[in-house]
Amino acid sequence: xxxxxxxxxxxxxxxxxxxxxxxxxxxxxxxxQIGSVEFPLEQCKLFAxxxxxxxxxxxxxxxxxxxxxxxxxxxxxxxDMADDIAAVINDLDDGPVHVLGAxxxxxxxxxxxxxxxxxxxxxxxxxxxxxxGPSEEGPQVDPAVREKNSAILExxxxxxxxxxxxxxxxxxxxxxxxxxxxxxxxxxxxxxxxSYRPDGLARQIRAAISTExxxxxxxxxxxxxxxxxGGEDPYFSTSHGESISKRISGAKLWMDPQMGxxxxxxxxxxxxxxxxxxxxxxxx
Length: 284
Prior knowledge:
Blueprint: E1 3-6, E2 9-18, E3 23-27, H1 41-49, E4 53-57, H2 78-92, E5 97-102, H3 104-115, E6 120-126, H4 143-151, H5 158-173, H6 181-194, H7 198-210, H8 214-217, E7 225-230, H9 238-247, E8 252-256, H10 265-281
Parallel strand pairs: 3-4, 3-5, 5-6, 6-7, 7-8
Antiparallel strand pairs: 1-2, 2-4
C-alpha cells in the first residue's frame, strides 16, 4: 500500500477500487481502519459503480498509519489529521477530490475542506458531531458517550477484545436495522490481527477533545455538501446533523429515522447514488 508522509506521521492508504472517475476519499471514524466495520469492500464497490476511484485511509494512529517513535507522545489535533488527508490527496496526484467522512472522519473532512478548499470538490458528512465547543451554543457530546469510549480503551486478549467490540457496535447500531453480529465479529477479528492499538485510539480521542473552532470554521464551506444522520444514533443526537446542515450554506440533509451510528447495508445503494448526484449533477 502507498504511504503519504505528513511531518511526524506516515499515512497508509489504498486505491480500493478504480471506477474510472475522480477520487472519492473515505475518512473513517474513531479507531477504524481499512477492512474494519466502516467502509467494507462491498460498499466501496457501489461507490466505484457510481463512477469514483475509491480511496480508503488508515487515519493517524489507526491501522498501519503510525507516528514516528520520537513523536509518539507529541499531542496533535484534528487539524493535523486533516492535513494528513491533504498529504494523501497530494500523493495521489489526482485531485481535487470528493470526500466522505464518517463520525470523527466527518470532523476531519470539514477541517480538510476549510484548510484546503482547493483540494475538495464535494463533501459528504455522515453521523458526525456539530463541531460546537463547550462554550458555544450548539449540540454537545453526551457524557455517557465518553463513558462508552473509555470501555474500548482497555488492552484485552483477542477474544475479550472482540466481545467488547461486538457489544460496543451493538450499542452504536441502534434498533432501526438488524445487527449482523457474525459479520461484525469477523471484521473485528481481522482488525485486531492487522493492528490492535488502543493507545492510538486514546490519542485520537484526546485530539478530538482538544480541537475547537469547527463550529465557526465550517460556515466557510462553500461546496456541494450532503449531511446524513440517523434517528437511532446513540452517539450524536439528530440535533447534531441538523445543526451541521444549517451551518454549511446550501447543505442537503438526509435524516434516516432508522439509522444508528453506522452506515447500514440497507442504505449503501442510496448513499452511493446521492454522493454521485452531489458530485456530478452539481457540476463538480
